[in-house]
Amino acid sequence: MTIAIEQxxxxxxxxxxxxxxxxxxxELPAFLSTPSSDSAVEVEVVGSHLxxxxxxxxxxxxxxxxxxxxxDGLIALHQATILRRNGDxxxxxxxxxxxxxxEITLVGQSDPVAQTRASSDLHVxxxxxxxxxVTPGHTLTGQIYLMPEADLSVFIESRDPSFIxxxxxxxxxxxxxxxxxxxxxxxxNRHHIVAATELMVGMMPSGRSVL
Length: 211
Prior knowledge:
- This protein is α+β, with helices and mostly antiparallel strands.
């Protein structure tokens, strides 16, 4: 599946969903048995050329962030639907599909209450920093949370954790600037960061977007 996605991504508009809809319509065969709803988190997975919705089983982990940052190998997405670049669902569905975490830019959650419940017992007071980030396929803004004594530059330059928790995330597609998406909570793959800077107070005029 990874090889096929890489080949399809070389299309004219770079949107894999259009190619998959031409090749595959309806249900794809499942790689795994359908999981129970226990520990299943509804997510949207976004890459440079691919966007899907589905559920991820986080098992014994309390939070999606812990699952993503303590896992080796591919990630299984269940009850998955291939989405168009703007987030509209296509007719391509599958009970399960394997995804390479290296090719994932963002894993978003639309249910902030679920994330709050999962992390309430592990809450640590931190300082919010608003970042402007450029990735291979998107620009985005969102808040990260650091310990009060932490240095932002050291955090950005670090290789760990691989996926950075962010809140109030707003993304814009570089392939189509009309496509804007918001996620109350999302995990950003730091290895997809092309450029990043802190959004300081006064940098963004009132009522205007930086993206």
